[in-house]
Amino acid sequence: MSTPSLLILPGDGIGPEVMVEVRKIIDWLSNHRGISFEVSEDLVGGAAYDAHGVALHDATMAKAQSVDAVLLGAVGGPKYDNLDFSVKPERGLLRLRKEMDLFANLRPAQCFDALADFSSLKRDLVAGLDIMIVRELTSGSYFGEPRGIFKEGNERVGINTHRYTESEIARVARAAFELAQRRSNRVCSMEKANVMEAGVLWRDVVSEVHQAEYSDVELSHMYADNGAMQLVRAPKQFDVILTDNLFGDILSDCAAMLTGSLGMLPSASLGSPMDNGRPKALYEPVHGSAPDITGQGKANPSACVLSFAMALRYSFNMGKEATRIENAVEGVLADGVRTADLLQADGEQPVTTSEMGNAIVARLTASL
Ligand code: IPM
Ligand code: MG
Q1: Taking the CB of residue 77, how many other CB atoms lie within 10 A of it?
Q2: Known catalytic residue: 249?
Q3: What are residue 223's DSSP bridge partners?
Q4: CA atoms within 13 A on the CB side of 251
Q5: Is 325 strand, coil or helix?
Q6: Is residue 225 among the annotated active site residues?
Q7: b/e per residue, 135-160, with b = 16+ CB within 10 A?
Q8: Which tens digits make up the pLDDT trace of 133-187?
Q9: Among the three residues 259, 274, 308, which one is the final residue of a domain in this structure?
Q10: Of 113, 216, 253, 292, catalytic
Q11: Which of 36, 118, 230, 234 is the most buried (most CB within 10 A)?
């Protein structure tokens, strides 16, 4: 097979800073493991807006469609808050998700033992936590039509449409069941079937797919509001959580915080297989652009590094190298190395973004 290709879109805020650390890992793999990538880099979000007046240039979109995987940093920042909706940095990310048809968003929430005390929940509720949220990413309220702000009589009305087709539900359900089979074999599907027709259909279709194709997996259903409550009451009851685009956005932030820091959480957004058998894929940390700490060397590069590890696992069939990177991050934390987001006691000295990256690389080398 030819050298796998990777498009890096660092984006805005701390995106470029954490991506520098991922580059160190990529170089390490090339130097020590003989694994090379054809890496290109381009603009997305506010950075693309500044250069081209749009949050994602057509040429960048075309490049994203042609590579084996995209790795994205973060988009957005206060500088762009007042821009027209159509050119806001977030539109760049949403366009990538939609046009690459990345319908399955995998957001693992894993609590590393060294960080169990950083969670806002008590240690025993989160220690050993390992759940996977599968969020539908290309439909629902984020993309449904009609949408807009319209005039109705003498007032304005804001409209978004929560819309799901059977096939959209079925394909993301399959992704969740298949993941569950490689984990603890349990899926909990969350919607609001008590108030929304789209939720009734969601529950129906998930049950049908389950019965026809995955009856070996344990399936349960929960209303999303109860799901939010259960996530903070007893998060370890879950294995895979399957949910729609909007509920998934909210539930995944909630799950993220259980693990101690948003700075630790990776994600993968996967679509259908391409001609080479690899899924269309974009990997990104769950944290945003964090404008408040941009340019200060305070950002934790772990989430972005772990997103790259997900790329190795889900796009490049390099699960062993992915585990090596995950173990290196965990090892660094166990050594007590902490970026600013992970400090507890006053007077503790944080390491910089770059020092954190170097520590991960040193752990990788020690693993050989
Ligand atoms: C996320 C983010 C995005 C979303 C924003 C940046 C558009 O919050 O990936 O969860 O709402 O999906
Ligand atoms: Mg979000």
Answers
A1: 21
A2: yes
A3: 191
A4: 35
A5: helix
A6: yes
A7: bbbbbbbbbbeeeeeeeeeeeeeeee
A8: 999 999 999 999 999 999 999 999 999 999 999 999 999 999 999 999 999 999 9
A9: 259
A10: 253
A11: 118
What type of residue is 308?
F
Residues 47/53/57/59 CA torsion (nearest 10 deg) = -110
* Half-sphere exposure of residue 206: CA atoms within 13 angstroms, side-chain side: 30
Is 320 within a domain? yes
Last residue of a domain, one of 227, 259, 291: 259
Q: What percent of the chain has pLDDT over 90?
A: 92
Closest ligand to the CA of 250: 2
CA 29 to chain centre: 23
Confidence (pLDDT) at 1? 62
Distance CA 321, CA 312 (A): 7
Rounded distance between C-alpha atoms, residue 132 and residue 168, angstroms: 20
pLDDT at 109: 94
Q: What is the pLDDT of residue 133?
A: 97
Residue 320 among the catalytic residues: no
- Same domain? For 338 and 248 the reply is no
Residue 101's domain is classified under what CATH number?
A: 3.40.718.10
What residue's CA is closest to ligand 1, atom 11? 249
- Residue 290 CA neighbour count, 13 Å, CB half: 23
**CA 185 centroid distance within chain:** 21
142 is catalytic: yes
Are the CB atoms for 114 and 333 separated by under 8 Å?
yes
Structural domain including 125 reads: 120-259
> Is residue 109 classed as helix, strand or coil in its secondary structure?
strand
Ranges in the chain, pLDDT < 70: 1
Residues 255 and 149 in one domain: yes
Residues 100, 4 within the same domain: yes
How many independent structural domains does the chain possess? Answer: 2
The answer to whether the CB of 141 is under 6 A from ligand 1 is no
Q: What is the pLDDT of residue 343?
A: 82
Q: How far apart are CA 175 and CA 165, in angstroms?
A: 16
What local confidence, expressed as pLDDT, does residue 2 receive?
82
